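Homework help thread (please don't just give me the answer)

Our assignment gives two proteins as sequence + C-alpha cell strings and asks us to describe the second one. The first is just a warm-up. Here they are:
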Amino acid sequence: MTNAPAFSEIGIVGAGAYGAALAIAAARAGRNVRLWARDPQAVAAMRERSEAPRLPGLALGEAIRPTGDLAELSVCDALIVAVPTQNLREACLAMAASLPRRAPVISAAKGIERASGLFATEIIARSWPGVETAILSGPSFAEDIGRGLPTAVTLAATVPGLAQRLAESLSSAAFRIYHARDVRGVEIGGAAKNVLAIAAGIAIGLGFGESARAALVARGFAELRRFGEAHGAEPETLMGLSGLGDVMLTCASAQSRNFAYGLALGQGRTPAEAAGGKLAEGAFTAPILAEMARSRDIEMPIATAVAAIIAGETGVREAVAGLLARPIRAEI
C-alpha cells in the first residue's frame, strides 16, 4: 500500500445503473459518495427510497448522498464520470464550469466519441484542461457490482502513482481493482469489445450456434489486438481484464446490452427496433472504429461488417455471407 492519503470523498456523475453500482462499491470501500443525477425526479426518488431507479432493490446506504447540484461535488477528492461516451464531453464541460477544484476524473465510459474519434481520457482532457485523468474498465455488470458479487476491473492513469492510489481507495473484498498505466490499451479494449458483442449477438440471433460464436469472437479479438497495437496499446493489457476479460463477458451474456442488440439484429429487427429504447454503446462505436481502422489500413472485417449493418448499408445475412466468402488465409 502507498503512504498517500486515501480519496475519502468520491463524486459520481451519472446515476444510471453503472454509476449507482459504482457508488455502492465506493461506499463499501469506506468512502463518502455524492451521486449526481440530472433528473430532479430521480434525485428525489433516490432520497426518498434510498435506491437508484435503475438498480431497484439495492440500497444506496447512508454514505451515499444523491444530488442534482454539480457544485456539491466540489468537496470531492476524485470524480467518476459514469455517462455514455457520446455524452461525456457535455458532462465534463459542465463539471469544469461548476467545480473550481481539479480533482482527478475517472471515466467509466466504454467507447469512442463518434464526432471526433477521441477516447474518453482525451475528451476529458480537452474539455477540462489541466485535470488528471484515468479510465476504469473491465468485465463488470452493474447488478453484479451492486449486489457485491466478486468482480475485478482495471483502472489506468498515466500520472505516476495515481492509478494505484485510486485503486487502493476504491477496492473492497468483492470489488477488486487492478492498476495500470496503459490508458490507451484499457480504453481500446472497453470500446472494441462492444462491437464484438454485437457481432456475437448477430451470430446467435441467426441461429448459427456456439461454434460460430466462438470462431467469431476469436477472430474479432484478433482485430481488437491489431487495432490496439497500431495505437500503442500493450499486448498484456489487451490480454487482461479490460481486453480479453471484457470480451468474454460481453460476448457471452444476454445481460450485455450490446449482445442483446446484436441478437435482435440477427433475429431480423432493424437497428432502431433492436435498440428498444436502450443504449448500446457499440452501435455508436462501430462506425468510428471502422473508420479509424481504414485510416490506418488496419484489417477489421468484422467491425466493418457491424458498422455497415448498423448504417443500413447491408443486410445481416449479406454481411455474414461476405465474411464467410473471404479468402482462406493463415491464422495470424
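The one we have to describe:
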Amino acid sequence: MQTRRFAALTGLAAAGVALGVAEVVAILTGATTSPLVSVGGVVIDSVPAKVKDFAVAVFYTYDKLALSVGMLIILAIVAALIGILAARREIWGYLGLGGFGVIGIVAALSRHNAPWYAFVPTLVGVLAGAGTLRWLLTREAGDNATPEERRSFLRTAGYTLVGAVVVGFASRWWSTRRGVEADRASVNLPPVAPNSVAPLPPSADAGLPDLSPFVTPNQDFYRIDTALVVPQLTTEDWQLRIHGRVDKEITISWDELLKRPMIERYITLACVSNEVGGDLISNTKWQGVRVSDLLDEARPQAGADQVVSRSIDGFTAGTPTAVLRDGRDAMLAIAMNGEPLPVEHGFPVRMVVPGLYGYVSATKWLVELELSSFADFDAYWIKRGWAAQGPIKTESRIDTPRAGANPRAGEVTIAGVAWAQHRGISKVEIQVDDGAWQTATLLPVPSTDTWRQWTLQWQATPGRHRLTVRATDNGGQTQTDAVAPPDPDGATGWHSVNVEVR
C-alpha cells in the first residue's frame, strides 16, 4: 500500500503544476483570468461584510495578501487529500482536479468584463495538473519500495512542486510588472494654471519625529480596495463614459481629459474602516479635472441624486450628486504629488472627493459615471450593510509620544493630526489623566479639506500618564467621546495613549 505521505505530496505537486501553468497562461490572457485571482475575487465579493471588516481590522492594508495566503493554505490541504484519494483510486484524483477546474472556470467567466477566453488558464492548468498526477502516480513509492526508490520519488515530486511554485510566483510577478508601468512613465502631466493651485503654507508641517508628515509620500499612502490584483489599464485604452439619467451622454478619452482645465489641491482621504487612532488616512497633493464641470456638461436630470462611479474591475461607489456640485474640489485625479497616479492607487484616473469616506467616493481605475438615484441602486458596500452616504466625522489622533513610550520628565511635545474634511478644524484639546483640557497650537493649512497638525508642550512628571485628544470643527461641533465601531458609517471616540515618564 502506498504511504499517505507520498500520496499527499503527489497531490500537492499536481495542484502546484496546475496553478503554475495557469499563471503562465494568464500572462497572455490577462492577470484577472488566473484561477487564483478569479476565485479570490468571488470570495471577496461573496463573504459577509463582517468578515471583510474583521480582515481589514486585523490585517489592515495586507488584507488581500492574507486572503491569498489563506486560499493557498486551503488549496494545499485539499490538494493533499486529492493525492491520498488518487492513490486509492486514480479516478478520484482526476475528479478532484476537475472540480477545482469547474470552480476556477465559473469564477473567471463571472468576473466583470471577463473576456470569453477567461477559462483558458484554468483549463490548461487542470490538464497539466492531471498529467502530472498521472506521471507521479506511476512513480510513487509504496510500502514495499526500497529506500533509494523512496528518495528518488521524493526528489522528483519535491522538485516538481518547488518548480511549479517558482514558475507560478515568477509569472505573477511578471504579469504585474509588465503591465502599465511603461505607459505611466511616458505620461507628461499637463500644466496647471497658477490660480488653480492651492499653495502649501511653509509652516504646515512641524517636522517632528513620529508625527505624520503633512504631505504623505505616495509610497506611504494607505490602500484599501477590493482588487485582489491591481487592474492594468493603459491611457490608450482608458475612456470615461458619463451616462444614465442625463440629458447628454458623454465619452471622454485620455487625450481629451488632459486638454481640460486642471486644478491642484491638497486633500485628505480617509477609509471608513479606520479605527479611532488608526492610520487608514493620508493627505497628498492631487491634480485633476473638476467633476462638477463634467456633470454640468452632461446635465443631470431631475431625481438623479446619485452618481455611481464604476471601476474597470466592476467596483461601484455611490456619491450624492449634490455633493459633487456644491463647490468643493471633487475631481477626476490623474496625479499625486506631481507624479502620475501610482498603478495601485488608480492609474490612470480615480475619483477624489473631499469630505466623504472613500467607500462612497474614491473609486480607483475609474471608467464610468452613471447618474442614478439612491432609491434605484445600491453600490458595492451599501449592499453589504454600510450607510448609503458617508460624510467624514470629526476625529483626531496622537502621533507622539507613542503608546507605551517612556519620555523623560520635563518638557515633552505632544503632537498629532486632526481632521474634519470640508469643514476644517478650529480647535484641538489635550487632557492629561483627568485634568483640565488644554488647547493645542494649530498649524496652518491650505484649505479645510486637509488634516491639520497640532502640538502642545507638556511639563511631564515622572509616573504613568494617560493622554487624550479631542477636536472641534469649524462648525463648532466637538468630536464625541461615544465609542462606536467603523460599521456602518465611521468610528467615533477619543484617542488616548498611555506613557510612562522616567
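TA reply:
I won't write it for you, but here's a hint about the kind of observation we're looking for: The first helix runs from residue 4 to 29.
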